[in-house]
Each structure stands twice: as structure tokens, then as C-alpha cells.
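Q: Sequence in, structure out?
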Amino acid sequence: MAKGGLVLGTTAAMAAAVAVIGFQLANPSIAAFRDSPKEIVDEAWQLINREYVDGSFNKTNWRQVRKQYVEDRDYSSKAEAYRSVREMLKLLNDPYTRFMDPEQFKSMQIDTSGELTGVGIQLGMDEETKRLTVVAPIEDSPAFRAGVLTKDEITSIANKSTEGMDINQAVALIRGPAGTKVKLGIKRGDKQFEIELERAKIEIHPVKADLRDTSVGKVGYIRLRQFNANAASDMRKVIQDHVNKGAVAFVMDLRSNPGGLLYSSAEIARMWLDNAPIVSTIDRKGESERLTANRQALTNKPLVVLVDGGSASASEILSGALQDNKRALIVGTKTFGKGLVQSVHSLSDGSGMAVTIAKYFTPSGRDINKTGIQPDRVVELTKEDLEKLNKNSDLVGTSSDPQFAKAIDLLANELRRANAR
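A: Exactly. Output:
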């Protein structure tokens, strides 16, 4: 579970630092048609057969699927094979189990540098409507500055309808060289409109932090944007720095954080928890693994965590662990609701697959898939609040940010109780 290939993110639209698990063919005889397009289809079928979380394969006869797509069919090109793999995966009705051609798979791995080229939209698939939906705009990106919001539906990309389009296809259309433009159709509630965005190089630094002077004293404000390979080490440095500078409390901001690597979320949880459960996963065989905090936390200072509908997967693991262990108060709005773990695999021709391999549960046993985590204190941002914070990101995490202001109020109460003991 601690391997970097276990991914919890909602999207392929942003770069995730993924340590790819190499895929090895289970049957040596397949080497006889190595370089054949049919091999790719068979590899994909075997991978699902061996690892997919649902042993009923969405009530599909998976052996019959192999006969239909591998045994009874020949392929003249890789493009045909890729189409068949995607057809097979559609039978699972799982937006997170997906196939990536070599170019798409390479894009998914770009992010070890923390930089990508695009418009800065993190995409997800709404499980009810099956529509491409904005999980969150990346802060200071072209999409963020243009006012794109969480839960906006993307109806078209470059004048092409997104009806039936998967996340990978959407990403391929949205991405492009810096300086070029792309037009997006957006549906927001009853409103439909188009915006044209100029692509740019977007640097993603996972941790943005500042020691804020507030009415309760110095508060460490830590904004965690994604759980990539650098997130845990950056978080550790910031916490230690803030403790050394006299922080009396902390606010950790997970709003619009779509997730990332499982081990990263667990490592960060350990910085706040002493000897406590973090998360458990259950695969299709019912086998359970549990991650725990088994060493001393970096600080026991009061903590509030900010979340919203763009806080997904790894963000939900972290906030759920802190909430269930009563280590932090959660403030904001209900989280995204993704309680599934994917493993990322490379196939023999350079293409790849993300496969849902397990469900995860919070320490108290909550399955938050599709339901999300309910904050301890619900604080909604108005449309005016969102527009103000989107236009001026310097106001995020200040008294002009209603959710942050509520966090400071709660920390004041916590500190008063601590001083009264």
C-alpha cells in the first residue's frame, strides 16, 4: 500500500507524480504474439481479471468478454486494439478504471517536475450524470483567473461536444503548447456559456504556507494543493518551521485538492497523529490492510482542516483520519466522495491503465464513496465569495475568506479550553 503506484486522484487532467508499477504478463506463451495489437487487449483483460475490485465485473461474464475481444477477434492496428480495450472497460461502469494510449500515459507521468502545460482544470466524471465536471481549477492558472468553478460541467472542448467523451480524451483536447488557445463550453446550473483560455506552463507546488498573525496569535496556514511525491517532505518542513517560530495553532487547507498518492496522504497524517489508525483498504477478496500512525506527531497544537466539494480521495483520507481520531475540526462543505484506490500499470507498448483495486474506509469504518465527508462545521461560500477569492487569490486564507475566518473562531475556542485546563 505504500507504493507510489497506488493513486487516489480523481483526474488525469493534472500531472500526478506516479511511480508506475511495471506490468508483467502472467502467461509466457503470450510472448509468441509480442508486438501484436491483440497482445495489448489481452494484457488489459488479464489485468482487470486479476486485480479489479469487483469480482462480478459489474455483473459481466468476464471470460466471455475475453472470448469476444481476444479469442474471436483480430486486429490490424493498435488504434483498433485501443478502441476495444476502452469498449471492454466501459462494461465495468467505473470512470476511474481507464486506458491511456502511450501519449496519454506519458502525460500522466510528467508531473514529477511539478509542471504541466494546459489551462489548469482538474477534471472528474460525475457518477450520476456521466458528464465531465470540474473538480477544481488549479490556483493561479488560466482557468482559475477566468473564473472556472468547482462543479462546472464541460459541455464542449474546441467546439467538440463532450457527450460520451472520457477524461483522457478531454485531457488530450485541452492540453497543448503554451500560448495557444482552447475554447470550452461550460454549463453552470441553468447557465451555459463559452470561454476561451490561453494555455500556459503551470507550476504546481504542493504546499503553500505562511505564518499568519491573527486574533489568537500566530497561526500556521498550510495550503496543500495535491498529494504528489514531494508533498510529505514539504509538509514536514513547514510544520517544523512554524512550530519553531511559535505557532499556537494550525489551519490546513485541502479545498480543491483532488488527491494523489496514497502513501503521501498517510505520511502527512502521521505528522499530526500519535499511534492511531489512518485508513483501511479492502480488495475484492475481502482482504484488509490498515495504515496506522505509529510514532510521535510533529505537533499537538490545535488544528482545523478546510474542505469543499473539490477535496477528493487522498484529501478525504487525511481529513477523515483527523476527524475520526478527533485530532482536527473539519470546516467547509461536503467533500467529493471518492473512496476508491487505483493502481497504475504500464502495458508492453507504452500505453497504460489505471485500475480500481480496492475501497478505502476511514478509521471508524466509514465508506465515503459517493457520500463524502461531512464537515464538523458547515460554512458555505456565496457566489460573491467565490468570485472575490477567485479574482484575488491573496485573499484566500485571510479574514476575507469566510471559511478561514470560521477556522480562527474555532481555534480561539480550542485555545481557551486548553488554557483553562
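Confidence is low (pLDDT under 50) at residues 1-5, 10-33.
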